[in-house]
Amino acid sequence: MPNYLLGTAIDWMHSVYGGVGKKVLLLLLSTKKKAKAWSISKYQSVLNDRLLNIKPPAHITRVPRSLTEIKYFKTSEWKTWLNDYSLPVLNGVLPDSYLLHHGSLVAAAHLLNANEVPYESLTVAENLLKKYVAQFSDFYHPDYLTINIHLLLHLHSVVVNQGAAWVYTCFPLESLNGVILSLVHGTRWAEQQIATSVQTCLALPEIVSKLPESEAKQFCSKVMKRRKYQGAEVVNGSAIIGKTVLLNQEDVPPHIVSTLEKANIKYRRLKQFHSLKRGKFLYVALSSNASVCRDSSAAVYSTCNGSNVGLIETFFRVYNCDCMDCSCDSTILALVTKCEVVMKFKTLIPEVFVPNVAEYKTTKEYDIVCPTNLLGVCVKMIISEKLYLAKPTNTMEVE
Fold this sequence. Notes:
By secondary structure, this protein is of the alpha+beta class.
């Protein structure tokens, strides 16, 4: 017999992101609660400026919106707020004890939604959530102890029984609901409209193949084969986006030459490019001027000693031949400026820090990184002249 209790998951989309995370921010900004210790409503313009100055990476679908539009925020925006934006934006504005409390929720959410959740992370997340819930009424009020707050106590056991939160995420299901809804064009017989539209979509390739040669057929074929990155060259699972430019020896900056020599990388020719797509992430180097509202230059990458975080300065293709136009083997490399942690956000457990968000500073050291060692794009935030980076929670979740 199946165990229906152990087999029931909790919907993070609406209980954690669109539930607790949303409720807490609404309380903090409520103009009706100005007398409360937690109220930061008078600082809304400061928070708004901080939020709107953030340039999210390409894999985050929506850019930040003004807090005046908070009632129109989508759940994906609440997810990004909780995981990435909230701690840097609230830092220095929200009282320290409240920031500590909120940091515990952010840390637990990250630990339980990682690619893999080891036993140690389960234990830490469970203790963080217990403390968060136990102290919630002290920080706010018992009236706000809703079912979503209670469900936080069960997130640990659900992950034990069902796996990490991304396994049963509702985001792709909600997205599919939107697609299905777009197939309905009338007020009656909705189910028949959906069935007919799906049948037409499935049969479309066969229908197009039977069309006589014409501009109409060419158009249909082009639409069906449409790709976001036209003509991208794929090398060992990495797509080179945009043009590559040959660098003359005298045009290669000295710090790049010394970094390549230090890494014992020999070359005859260097070609430079600015964007690389690998997996779900698009990495865009600082050398690119492609976008004014997006920043995908911060990356987390693996090293022989674990993982580091840095800013991608540029990308190279390294050749060991003198051919000007050839198909010889080449190596793709990223030049990364190393960053080091300045400050970690604390939680209600003194020895536990928020694992995914911290304040950093750039160094004068560089790493040469292969694309296979790039683990994801970080959210880069510059707030009050301080650099904050938020590592991706996982690489598995689909929205």
